[in-house]
Amino acid sequence: MSLNKNKLFIYFSFFFSVGILAQEPASVEKDSMAMQNLNEVVVTGQINKQSVDKSVFEVKVIPRETLDRLAGNTLADVLNQSLNISIQPNPSSGKSSVELFGLDGQYFKILVDNIPLINDEGLGNNTDLTQINLDDIEQVEIVEGSMGVQYGSNAVSGIINIITRKDSDYQWEITPYVQEETIGNEYGFFDQGRHIQSLKVGHRFSDQWYVNGNVTHNDFTGHQNNREGEFHALNDGRRGYEWLPKLQYSGKGLVSYTRDNFRSFYRMEYFNEQVDRYDSVVRENFNPSTQTSNPTASDDIFTSRRFFNHLNVAGQLFQKVNYDISASYQQQKRDVEQFTYRINSREKFDVESQEYESRKGFYSRGTFSNFFTSEKTSLQLGYELSNINGYSSSAAIAFSGNNIARRLESYDAFATAEFTLGERFSFRPGTRAMFSSQFKTQMAHSLSAKYAFDNGYQLRAVVGTSPRNPNFDELFTYFVDVNHDVQGNSNLEPERGVSTFLHLKKNFFQKDLKWRLSSKISAWYLTVDDRIELTIVNETPLAFQYNNIDEYRNWGTSFTNKLVHGDFQFDLGLSLSGESKVLNSEDSFNDDYLYALQVSSNVGYQIPKINTTFSLFFKYNGPEYQFVLDPEQDDPTFMRSKREGYGWMDASIKKTFMEDKLQLTLGARNLLDITRINTSSMSGGGTHATANTGLLLGYGRSYFVKLLYNLKI
C-alpha cells in the first residue's frame, strides 16, 4: 500500500470518528481529571503500601491512564517521555536500553511486582525495554537514587517497578484489541508496518478467587528507508533493513486468592522474540556458461525466550506481624540461526544453530513488619537471595560453543525502621548486608526523612548507597586468539554508588478540587567510585583486562509541575544536570562537568459529553557532551564531543463508545520526524570536519490506530 493511501486511510478514520463525536449522545458525566489520582498508592520501597503523599521516598507514578493515552505497548514507548531518562534504541540489534542520570542499564533495576526481571545480560539490569509488554500493567513506579537497602546491588541510580493488575470488580472481563501502525512512511496490511493483536480474559470465581490471562502478538516488520529488504539481489549495499524486523509473542497468566488477612498470587509469563538480520553483502554467483546468477547472502535469525514464574504469599503471623514473601524461577535464552540464503529461490542452506546466551536462576525476597503496636514506630526486616547460572558471548559470530557456565549466588539481609515524631517529621534509617559467592561482604545504607511545614510544603531528603556488581562479561570474558587478548577479571570489586536527593513539594488546590497544582523542586548529587573499565595490561603483545579504575559524578536540579483544572491537565518538567568522569584508565583525561538540559511536558483535555480525550506529549533533550580521545593526535588527548539536541512529540485522540465498552485511539508518534541527529567533536576552537553519519534515534513520523473492546459483566 502506498504512503498516500495509508495517510488517506488514517485521515478518513479520523474524520469518521469526528463525525461520530457530533452524533454521540451525552453520557453520564464522569469525574473531572482533578478528581482522579488524588491518592495514588505505591508499593515500591515502602514498609506498607501507602499513598505517595505519606511516603518518605519520592516515588514517580505513571498510571494506567497515561499508558492508554500514549497507546504504549512496551516500556520503551512510555519511558521515552520521562524526565531524566534517555532511551537508546539500537536498530542493528532491535534492542532499546535506557540511561538514568547518565548511567546505563547496569546501574538501575527493572522490577515486576518487586521482583527483578531476568534478561539476556543479567537479573534486573541491562533489560531490553522493547521486551516488556504492558497489557496487564496497573502502573509504573520510579524511584530515583541509590536504593541498595531495599533492592540490593545494582540499584545505584534508581528503580523502575512495574505493578501488574491482580484483581477486578467484575465477574468477567474480556478485552481484545488490535493496533495498526505505520513505520515511518512504510505500511502494508501484512508486509510492512507494526501489527499488534491482543486478548485478555479475567474471571472472578468468588470473592476469594480471581484468574486472568492474556496473549499478545506484536509484529514489527522492519524499516527499510533506503534499503530494499531481504529479496534484493544486487550487491550494491542496499539489501536488508535499517531497523531490523522483530516478531514478538507473549502469554501471561495469573491466579490470585484473597481471604481475611491472607492473600497470594501466582503469575507466569512466556515471551518469545525473533529478530531477523539480512546481510547487505550479496554474492551474485555468476555462471558464465549459462549467463545466469544465483545470488546468496549470509543471514542470521536471533531468538530470545523468557520464562517467568512468581509465587507470592502475604498475611499475618500471630494476628500481628505482617509478612510478604515472593519466590521466582526465571530463565532467558538467546539463540542464533546462521545460514546462507538463496535470494531468488527463497531457501536456506548450510544452517547452523546454537544457543549463545543463557540466564536461569532462583530468586526470593521476603519482608516482615508491624512488630509494634505504636503508630509512630515501624520496623521492617527482610531477606533476599538469588542463585543465577549462565553464560554469554558478546558476539554471536565469535561464539565457539565452549563457554563455561558460571554461577553467582547472593544472600542478603536488610532492616529498615520508620519513626514519626509528631505530625510533621518522620525519618527512616536502613541497612543491608550482602553476602556473595564471588565478592567480599558488601554493605548498603540509607537515611530518608520527611518534614511537613505549616503552609503545606513537604521537604524530603534521601541519602542512599548501593554497589554495582561486575557483570558476567567483566568477570568471565575470555576472548584470546592470534589477533585478540581480552579477558575478564574474577578479582574485580563491586563499584560503589552513593546518592543524595532533596525534594521540596507543595500541593495547591481549591476546596471543591476544581483545580489543583502540584509543584516540586529537586536537587541531587550522585557518585560512582571504582568504576570498571577495559584497560591495557600489556603493550606487546597487546592485551586488555577489566579493572576497577574510573569514577563518575552527576549533579543536577529539576522543577516539575502538574496542573489539573476540571477536564484539563498540563504537566511540565525541566531538568539541568552535569556529569563528570574521572578516567584514570587513560593517561590523559578531562574531568570537567558537562551539562545537559531536558524538558518534558504533556497536555490532556477530556470532553466528557462526547467521551473523548485529546493528548499531546513533548520532550526536549538538549545537547549532550562527553570527552572522547582525539584520533588526530599522536599522544592521547581528550576532546569534547557534542550530540545535538532534539525534540520528540507524540499525540493521540481517544474516543469511547457504548458506555466505555469500545475505545478507538488515533495518534501519531515522533511528530517532529526525528531520524538521525548530528554528533561532532570539538578540540580547541574548532570542530573536526571528519565524516559523521550521526546517531540513529527514530524512523520518522508514524501514525497508529487502536481499537479495543472491553466487556465487563
Oligomer: single chain
Number of helices: 5
> What is the CATH-assigned architecture?
Beta Barrel
The total beta strand count reads 44
SSE class: mainly beta
GO biological process, one term: siderophore transmembrane transport
Protein name: TonB-dependent receptor
Membrane topology: Multi-pass membrane protein
Main location: membrane
3D architecture notes:
The structure is a single chain. With 713 residues, this protein is mainly beta. The chain has a single domain, classed as Beta Barrel (Maltoporin, Chain A), CATH 2.40.170. The chain contains 5 helices and 44 strands. It has a 22-stranded antiparallel β-barrel. A 5-stranded mixed sheet has the order 3-10-11-6-7. A 4-stranded antiparallel sheet has the order 35-36-40-41, with no helix packed on it. It starts with a helix and ends with a strand. The N terminus is likely disordered.
Which key features would you list for this structure?
mainly beta, Maltoporin, Chain A, 57% strand, single chain, disordered N terminus, 22-stranded antiparallel beta barrel, 713 residues
At a glance:
The protein is built from five helices and 44 strands. It is mostly beta strands and 713 residues long.
Question: Any chance you could write out the topology, listing elements then pairs?
Answer:
Blueprint (H helix, E strand, L loop, with lengths): L2 H21 L17 E2 L7 E2 L7 E5 H7 L4 H5 L5 E6 L4 E6 L7 E5 L2 E2 L1 E2 L2 E2 L13 E8 L3 H4 L6 E7 L7 E10 L12 E11 L4 E12 L25 E14 L2 E16 L8 E2 L4 E2 L2 E22 L3 E22 L4 E23 L7 E16 L13 E16 L3 E12 L5 E11 L5 E11 L3 H5 L1 E3 L4 E3 L7 E15 L5 E24 L4 E23 L2 E15 L11 E14 L4 E10 L2 E6 L8 E6 L2 E12 L4 E8 L6 E2 L1 E5 L2 E2 L7 E2 L5 E8 L1 E2 L1
Parallel strand pairs: 6-11, 28-31
Antiparallel strand pairs: 1-2, 3-10, 4-5, 6-7, 8-9, 10-11, 12-13, 12-43, 12-44, 13-14, 14-15, 15-16, 16-19, 17-18, 19-20, 20-21, 21-22, 22-23, 23-24, 24-25, 25-26, 26-29, 27-28, 29-30, 30-31, 31-32, 32-33, 33-34, 34-37, 35-36, 36-40, 37-38, 38-43, 39-42, 40-41
